[in-house]
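Design review, sub-item: ligand-bound model
Attendees: FS, YL, KQ
YL presented the inputs for the 4'-deoxy-4'-aminopyridoxal-5'-phosphate complex:
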Amino acid sequence: MMINELTRNQTLLDQQVKRESNARSYPRRIPIAINKAEGIFVTDMEGKQYYDCLAGAGTLALGHNHPVTIEAMQKVLHDKRPLHTLDITTPIKEEFVNEIFSNLPGDFAERAKIQFCGPTGGDAIEAALKLVKTATGRSSILTFQGGYHGSTHGTMAISGNLGPKKNVQGLIPDTHFMPYPYSYRCPFGMKGNEGHKISSTYIENLLDDPESGILPPAAMILEVVQGEGGTIPAPIEWLKEMRRITSERGIPLIIDEIQTGLGRTGKMFAFEHAGIVPDVIVLSKAIGGSLPLSVVIYDHELDKWEPGAHIGTFRGNQMAMAAGTASLKFIKEENLEKHAAKMGEKMLSALQKLQLDFPDIGDVRGRGLMIGVEIVDPNEPQSSSGSYPSQPALASRIQRECFNRGLILEVGGRNGSVVRLLPPLIITNEQVSDVLNIFERAVKAAVESL
Ligand code: PMP
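KQ shared the predicted structure:
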């Protein structure tokens, strides 16, 4: 392609800065104008190719423009199906529901109801909150430090990150933040993996203490692997405890699988690692096969809300349902969740090896293809749990060095100090090696530039 003024990256980026909102986020750290995309790759306006290990913030399970999703979308158009149906049913929707339900744990699938939501994950979380509040007649919500559930008033209220919260008054009240088992920065200052036991003891005590200050909650909501909070996988034992504690007290457990769902962590749903069954599952991102779609799936006993209790215009995106069905089938047929587990292990062990050479890498963790590398300052004193303070400037430097070398990834977590890898599940063994190679060179360059 001829590069001229209109096709330069910088022209589009300048226009974006001039015209788009100050609230824009990713382009500030990932200054690219994307022209084309296929599989794990995106290509900018000037023909430079990048590995995309952000993949729509974990949305693109099959990468960009996968043939099975494209074919499904084209078929919808070719067959002159409706593109938009509110929540009116269609054969495409029927097939999508069949496919999703066939992937749920058997006993849950039999008891499950599904609510189609406005297309974002945040809207589905909003729906889940309303569902449990209505069903229980209660108002308080137990959520977790470091949790992320969206950017609306309600979802921001139950999310940890104080940055965007501090300027928005009047978020929903009666949300209570519990300590998440983050072993590197243990909220109880414990070394190793012991903190999760204190977390569950604390939560159980709080629920039984008549002077806890917190009324019996309408639900507990959690991510099995906290994503935006810094890629923090919860220990299996802790997850089992959360299920036991909530079950014994009749508290609905909402599992936010928006980022972890559909194979990313090495199982179709991340809660399966713990062998637990939630009362409510919230799904978005990957389920639309790269198009916007979100659902809440829940135990029919909670189905107490009135007709029209959660509505919204864009709940009938047929292309998304068709692409989602195709993605789900492909993931299952190709055993992509097992592949994700294998590729994830390879990445994790290579990064753990890299950690030995770079003391600025404080922690490497993950489950499947959801991996976080926490960047710290080893020259500062350690906390009682053995962690060093975060070093966000170096994390962004690493991100920038990766970008310059053709690798897109995101930073997140506490103080933006966790470099996060969320590649599509179709990443090949060879591509994993390439990504690791770029990452290693980027870390080296970033550290040397200090
Ligand atoms: N929950 C989790 C776990 C997420 O990762 C996200 C998005 N990053 C959301 C909820 C919100 O989804 P959306 O951005 O589509 O509203």
